[in-house]
Amino acid sequence: MGSCENFCLRWNDFESNVSSSFRELRAESDFFDVTLGCTDSGGRSRHAHKVILSACSKIFKSILRQQAVQQVNANPFIYLRGISYHDLSSILNFMYHGEVNVAQEDLNSFLAVAE
Fold first, then answer.
1. What is the distance between the alpha carbons of residues 9 and 63, in angstroms, rounded to a whole number?
2. What is the pLDDT of residue 70?
3. What is the mean pLDDT of residues 93-110?
4. Which of 36, 43, 52, 107 has its CB surrounded by the most CB atoms within 10 Å?
């Protein structure tokens, strides 16, 4: 019988490639499939990708999975009561870029939302 060797194929710079792809998707507003609103947005909303939100947050994953099961809306709107627009923007920046600059006076609210 022939030998059954397995080969490990590795994509060099996979992590940096995926990371830069996340940034590009957001910067170019490509394929957004969820809209987020919050308390003090003044009618503004933020767009995002379900897969990114789900990968970064168990809560978002649960909400989006429930939406998918119920087949309510392919592009849901999620209202985040009690969260400021500034914190929402910072959280999304953190999810897409892996880092964010937060002013000291905003740090406690950012950490509370992130938790």
1. 35
2. 82
3. 93
4. 36
Beta strands in 11-56 (DSSP E): 34-38, 46-48
> Residue 22 and residue 96: Cα distance in Å, rounded?
6
Burial of residue 53 (CB within 10 Å: 0-12, 13-18, 19+) is: buried
Residue with tokens 């710079």: 13
Taking alpha carbons only, the member of 26, 33, 9, 40 closest to residue 97 is 26
Least confident of 22-26, 32-36, 44-48, 68-72: 68-72
Residues 43-91 pLDDT 10s: 899 999 999 999 999 999 999 999 888 877 788 999 999 999 999 999 9
* Closest-CA residue to 91 (of 102, 82, 81): 102
C-alpha torsion 98→104→107→109, nearest 10: -140
